[in-house]
Amino acid sequence: MPLGLYTSCEVSAPCGLCSTEGIIGLLDVPETYLEPDRMKAGLIWFTRGFLEYQFPNNAKLAQNTIEVLEFALELSSEVPGTSADWPSDITLSVNGTEIGTWTSPGDFWGQARRLYAGLVEAQGQPVWQAQELAGDDRWYLCRRDEDFTDLVGGPGPGNHHSIRLRIAVKPDAKHPGGINIFGRGYGNYDQEIIMRLQTER
Q1: Single pTM value for the model
Q2: Could you tell me the maximum CA-CA distance found in the chain, to the nearest angstrom?
Q3: Where would a tag sit more exposed on the chain, N or C end, judged by fewer CB atoms within 10 A?
Q4: Residue 2, domain member (yes or no)
Q5: Does 37 have pLDDT greater than 90?
Q6: Is there a contact between 28 and 7 (Cβ–Cβ < 8 Å)?
């Protein structure tokens, strides 16, 4: 998913977007996030707020049940300049349900962290896990008692035709250190946001 292809946004300054060619729109003006050129963004940053991305739920279209949902994205805290000690609580939600919060340790500009996050079945219960691929640390952020298929949709009526990922720094975050989201041309991995679905055979 290209960084600029978000379907909903609400951000506060300092904020901005960059392509590999330069700044998009105006710096620190939230309305810039509506610019058509946002589709070229390779770096997005803001202090508080959210971006939401809508992926097609191809598993539902194929009438398959999702067993594992994974997202891979590269992000960090956001501070003018850089600071390795600038924690920020970054919250992920799927289809309107808050999954968990990862605390980014700092803004490493040029040494960003890649967050690999997934919902997996563990001992019969879905577990949200996030692993910082730059190191060996692993976080288990949230256990859910609800049926996993209620979240992303398996076969049957009333399930979701799309999978909405929201990336947020909440207004009441304990560590409101902002966020950088890195895409093509920026960061360490030169990739957009990746979603993977693993379904029942």
Answers
A1: 0.79
A2: 50
A3: C
A4: no
A5: yes
A6: no
CATH code of the domain covering residue 158: 2.60.120
Could you report how far apart the first and last alpha carbons of the chain are, in Å? 25
Residue range(s) defining the domain that contains residue 83? 8-199
pLDDT of residue 14: 93
Give the total number of structural domains in the chain: 1
Residue range 148-166: mean pLDDT, rounded: 62
What digits encode the pLDDT tens for the residues 80-113?
666 667 688 988 888 888 877 888 877 665 544 4
